[in-house]
Write a structure and sequence with these properties.
Layout: E1 8-11, E2 14-18, E3 29-32, H1 35-43, H2 50-65, H3 73-88, H4 95-109, H5 115-145, E4 154-157, H6 174-181, E5 187-191, H7 198-209, E6 213-217, H8 222-227, E7 233-236, E8 240-242, E9 247-250, H9 253-263, E10 267-270, E11 276-277, H10 294-297, E12 298-299, E13 302-303, E14 316-319, E15 326-329, E16 332-334, H11 338-346
Parallel strand pairs: 4-5, 4-7, 5-6, 7-10, 8-11, 10-15
Antiparallel strand pairs: 1-2, 2-3, 8-9, 9-14, 12-13, 15-16
Helix pairs in contact: 1-2, 2-3, 2-4, 2-5, 3-4, 4-5, 5-6
Bound molecules: 5-S-methyl-1-O-phosphono-5-thio-D-ribulose.
5-S-methyl-1-O-phosphono-5-thio-D-ribulose binds next to helix 2 and strand 9.
Length: 347
């Protein structure tokens, strides 16, 4: 497979993030010097996408504690907890951040070795495991869903649930990359994804670079191209799947799911287990991140709305489970009844 963009890397105790706010015009890696910088990179969407912020959070915790190993073990463990709680506040909707930080905290609790330096090494191993596991989860989702994509199909996706949203071949894009590798000819339609243009800047960039046939459209064109018979399937990613199968994803996903139902088009959502949150009973309990008004009142740096206009800017919405055809997971494709089937697989 063509080399895909590397979202982040951990090298010699340093965290490097590909600054996604600059893509596709500039491909620049940024070294993370402090935990505050990592927090800010997550908040500003320099690193974004649920699985990627989980991995970045785990490494970010190492950045927070790497220079504090002179502390005694008890104080050091408390420092780990404090910094994990801080990093968790960067973004509320994607459960992967909390999931990865909880894994790091559990690893702290089960540490039976000696000294703070030992604990740091132990946590570094856990962060690397989280990272390597993410790569494998993407591959498994791809393998489990590759046969959904058939010759001549049009597949619509929203936002970026690609390599850039993970550390592997993406979630929604995983079956696309594998189908392409298998020589299947199909077209991908990428929603632009207002206001931050993840579809235009990121999805169309990475798929195009990898040689897939990708067509960019603005979000308000989806109904029209569906009505023209160009779309055979929708695949999106998700930031959190509730226990009943309701799915939070980038704002606009719910609308697409309603359209897909209207046109009789299957609507799939790809998610590793790290995105499935059985502690959240249903979608209405998921905290939806509200972002700053400038993302809507401006296009790039240029103001496109009147001064002092009231703005709403929820970054995500919740698609009710009845609109979801199937959840593409590392264990296979999970279908309704979602509550029962998710419990069977993940409890
Ligand atoms: O605000 P973003 O760019 O982090 O939103 C990302 C999405 O909505 C993705 O679809 C989701 O995180 C799944 S990524 C595999």
């Amino acid at each position: 497979m063509t080399t895909l963009p590397q979202t982040l890397r951990w090298s010699a105790g340093e965290l490097y993030l590909l600054d996604q706010t600059k893509l596709p015009l500039e491909v620049i890696e940024e070294k993370q010097e402090s935990v505050e910088q990592v927090w800010d990179s997550i908040k500003q969407l320099k690193v974004r996408g649920a699985p990627a912020i989980g991995v970045a959070g785990a490494y970010g915790l190492l950045v927070a504690i790497r220079e504090k190993t002179a502390m005694n073990l008890k104080d050091y463990s408390q420092e780990v907890e404090k910094k994990a709680a801080y990093l968790d506040t960067a973004r509320p909707t994607a459960v992967n951040l909390k999931w990865a930080l909880n894994r790091m905290l559990n690893s702290t609790k089960t540490f039976s070795g000696n000294g703070s330096r030992g604990l740091y090494k132990h946590l570094e191993e856990e962060a690397i495991r989280i990272h390597e596991e993410d790569v494998q989860l993407c591959l498994k989702m791809g393998i489990n869903a590759v046969l959904l994509i058939k010759e001549g199909m049009g597949v619509l996706t929203h936002c970026n649930a690609g390599a850039l949203a993970t550390t592997g071949i993406g979630t929604a894009t995983a079956p696309m990359y594998l189908a392409h590798q298998n020589g299947v000819q199909f077209r991908v339609y990428a929603d632009e994804t207002r206001p931050l243009l993840q579809g235009a800047r990121l999805t169309s960039w990475e798929l195009n670079k990898a040689g897939l046939d990708v067509t960019l459209l603005t979000d308000n064109m989806a109904a029209h191209i569906m009505s023209q018979g160009l779309i055979d399937m929708v695949i999106t990613g998700t930031d959190r799947v509730a226990a009943n199968g309701d799915v939070a994803n980038k704002i606009g996903t719910h609308g697409l799911a309603i359209l897909a139902k209207h046109f009789g088009i299957p609507f799939y959502v790809a998610c590793p287990y790290s995105t499935i949150d059985l502690n959240t009973a249903e979608g209405s309990e998921i905290v939806i991140e509200e972002r700053k008004a400038e993302e809507v009142t401006h296009f790039g740096l240029r103001r496109t709305a009147p001064e002092e206009i009231k703005v709403c800017n929820p970054a995500f919405d919740v698609t009710p489970n009845e609109l979801v055809t199937g959840l593409i997971t590392e264990k296979g494709i999970i279908r309704a009844p979602f509550g029962e089937n998710l419990r069977k697989e993940y409890l």
